[in-house]
Amino acid sequence: MKEITIIGATGVLGSSITKKLSQKGVRVKAVVRDINKAKKLLPETVEIVYGDVSDKSSLKEALVGSETIYLNLNTTTWDENAPFHPEREGIINVIDVSKELGVKHIMQIVGIDLSNPEFATKGMIYKTNLIRKPAIEHMKKSGINYTYLHCSVFLDSFPTFIQGEEFAIIGNHQYPVYFTNTIDLTENIYNTIGNANAYNQSFTIQGREGISFSEAAQRFLSVYAPDKKVSEYPMETIKHIGLPSEEDEQFMEHMLTYVEQLKEEQVSHSTWEILGEPKLSIEEFVETLLK
């Protein structure tokens, strides 16, 4: 039986992947900070243990017996001077503890922008990647087998764009995106577990077709909510949507401005040979959300 330990199992993407791996018969252990939340969110087949990436002692208890770890953490600020980031100090803690415990393999989800900076048509640097960089360098020097999964935009996030009667898109997103989803990614992760051909490698994770954000939204709604419409707003709209702080506004504007000028190309054929090919169209994926 395949086994995996997941850190970041209760987020939107992490919870979906955790459930799907468990459904495929993988023995899953979820390392979480909020046990009660995890019990409500995850299947009974998932072993839930307490662990906090900011606390090495808790990680030592949580990761005992783990051979393969999957990291699904995220960064929501690009303040490099912040004393702690889950994707920097947090992951470094995980690596240090994993090395001490003899963990065999760590895989991590990151953005496709990190593996293919040439996609940035205006030469922008995504500031979050500067925060991730020290942990990535630490991983590669650790001696632990690693696998990076550089993912395109997830269709799983689309329901969060629906506000009232519309699917709201901020910015002028005209370039093609090879949208992926957690069902196809779960297959990739499943095929990575115990696969020596995936060790010490980076893989791009994309769907088969490149389409604009607005076209993807329209196709998503045609199945998910046919009565709603796609609306596009200028970037200045961010200042008027009531985000909690100015820092949140700046972070969202930087992220969307970066994505706006990102022009993907299909670069994942080598991934398909080792980790499997994407199977679902946009419409087929939406059908799974409605079940």
Automatic annotation (TrEMBL):
It comes from the Bacteria. Pfam families: NAD_binding_10 (PF13460). Residues 8-156 form the NAD(P)-binding domain. PANTHER family: PRESTALK A DIFFERENTIATION PROTEIN A, PTHR43162. This is Uncharacterized protein YbjT (DUF2867 family). The lineage of its organism: Bacteria, Pseudomonadati, Bacteroidota, Cytophagia, Cytophagales.
